[in-house]
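ugh ok fine here u go
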Amino acid sequence: MQDIKFNKILIFINALVPLALLSYDGFAGNLGANPVEFFLRTTGVLTLIFLLVTLMVTPLRKIFGWNNLIKFRRMLGLFAFFYGFLHLVTYSVFDKNFDFPAIAADVWQRPFIAVGMLAFFLLIPLAVTSTNGMIKRLGGKNWARLHKLTYAVAILGVIHFWMIVKSDLTYPFLFALVLTGLLGHRIFAAQKSKAAKAKLATK
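structure:
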């Protein structure tokens, strides 16, 4: 129990390191010619990283038997939401100055923004229902069904990133590759579970 608490603190601190470095560089004027764009891109990438790391928890637990990883999944998911929120705030406040008509026009004219917005809004119910109380209120099965939306959010996030990049697609491709692997593992595990249940039913 002590190790889990220590590891949670370690994850919490390390998850905030990128934000601390960004803030320091921002105050020092080291974010380049367009600091808002740099901050926007970085928080977007961090959102995707935390989403994919969250989705890695179950496969790693099942493949290697690292059952304690499940205790960190909620925190990782909430950091995905946190950086997604910062990404949206940076766009809405610092890029668009809370100009809602301009934001609406942007969403209409540039599809990648609409995709990104949809991904974030799908994250909201996942963050809201992340507490133990909400799990009990929804019931384990309903909660699990709802949180399968994480895959939809990750897919939309990768598409959003892919649509933004105009030349070098290396990083969006790497994210897409990792996500494809995670989806492939989930499909394989589901088929394996169905086959095992069918085999038991015939006995």
